[in-house]
Amino acid sequence: MASSLLPTYARFNLAFERGEGAWLYATNGEKYLDFGAGIAVVSVGHSHPHLVKALTEQGEKLWHVSNLFEIPQAERLGARLAAESFADLVFFTNSGTEAMEGAIKTARRHQFVSGHPERYRIISFLGAFHGRTLAAVAAGGNPKYLEGFGPPHEGFDPVPFGDLAAVKAAITSQTAAILIEPIQGEGGVRVATPEFLEALRALCDGHGLLLILDEVQSGMGRTGKLFAYEHSRAAPDIMTLAKGIGGGFPLGAFLTTRKVGECMTPGTHGTTYGGNPLATAVGNAVLDLILADGFLTHVTKMGAALSHGLRELQKRYPDVVEDVRGMGLMSGIKVAGPVIEFVNATLAEKLITIPASDNVVRLLPPLTVTEVEIALALTRLNAVAETLSVARAKAARRGAA
Fold first, then answer.
1. In whole angstroms, what is the distance from residue 189 CA to residue 382 CA?
2. Is 129 a catalytic residue?
3. Per-residue pLDDT tens digits for 350-389
4. What is the DSSP letter of 314?
5. What's the mean pLDDT in 265-277?
6. Of 140, 224, 288, 328, which residue is 20 to 30 A from 189 by alpha carbon distance?
7. Which of 86, 129, 156, 254 is catalytic?
8. What is 38-49 written as a DSSP string?
């Protein structure tokens, strides 16, 4: 029977009924090692008892009241995020793209109230992915996501990723901010160097611009620090979060300094669902775990083990694995041949991976993944690479004959 869902996804013919830690159990009874984590969302594993407890306890008391009233759970989560970051103020949303919309509005309004209404343009980077709203896809500049939706939203100037000269050339009297992902996820797990981020910070300081970091995928412990910007000396003025912040429950946020965020006075922005008691109770439970002693050290250790194993894989099968990228538990394998071929092959090995641009396969396991599970994933990846390498060698021999 035809699906009633809008056909915007080329879905795999596979459904899951439950999960536990880094494992998913399909409706057909098969067991899969999940190195996708719902695209970096299931940050502390499937059905973590601490999250289940927080969700059920809050769900039995109060789900939603709207932001017309104080929400203690949101106040607590906001205070904790601010205390652990550069920020003073937090606005909660339901998703990453909503967080990005709020960040864009805040940057523009800050320039407006600072006496520079002409400053509304934002320099962004090619290969970026900032969400699916009209403004977010315009910021990314990807023709695939812009086609068919009318003229791109005005005000964005995408330049090549990592090209400081191009950034400098793009700055005009109308520039309000620079927007960047510290690690491009959808763009192929491309990492901005600390030096590049620090150079952007210096440019912003020198020109009166704001630095906006999109940490929707790289934040909440994914790189071994709570936020990826902490690997550099480049603190932002505004930062967006989502994905791992709710551990699977829809939750996003943008964070700002007080100097920047105080321009957002009553009536300038809002949300119906964002930051409600249920979502922020779960968000607090996620943060409990990530901030616990040893958690981020574990992420760093597991990330190092995964990276070492992937580089060994590249040495063994250079005809299949062209490059290994990433930081912490945000890894990418640039593969030879169609990326979907590799993803399908990992799925056949009962290992879930995520395709990305630039012919990259993303590995984004739950941050609670164990050393045994890392080793098992590497064994399955080795089987995939060996199968593809043998098949290509046979094809080459046939072609030569």
1. 21
2. yes
3. 999 999 999 999 999 999 999 999 999 999 999 999 999 9
4. H
5. 97
6. 288
7. 129
8. HHHT-TT-BT-H
| Cβ proximity of 146 and 135 under 8 Å | no
Catalytic residue among 91, 214, 249, 342: 214
pTM, rounded to two decimals: 0.96
- What's the half-sphere exposure (Cβ side, CA atoms, 13 Å) at 262? 5
Residues 6+ apart with CB under 8 A from 360: 188, 189, 325, 332, 333, 334, 335, 339
394 is an active site residue = no
The dihedral through the CA atoms of 235, 241, 243, 244 has a sign that is positive
Distances (CA, A) of 267 to 68, 169, 264: 12, 36, 8
The whole-angstrom separation of Cα 274 and Cα 74 is 9
Backbone angles phi, psi at 159, to 5 degrees: -130, 165
Separation between Cα atoms, residue 317 and residue 306, nearest integer Å: 16
Cα distance between residue 43 and residue 81, in whole Å: 16
Per-residue pLDDT band at 399 (split at 50, 70, 90):
confident
Please tell me which residue in 243, 254, 334, 342 is annotated as part of the active site: 243
Beta strands at 321-327 and 16-20: parallel, antiparallel or unpaired: unpaired
Q: Quote the CA–CA distance of 56 and 123 in Å, as a whole number.
A: 43
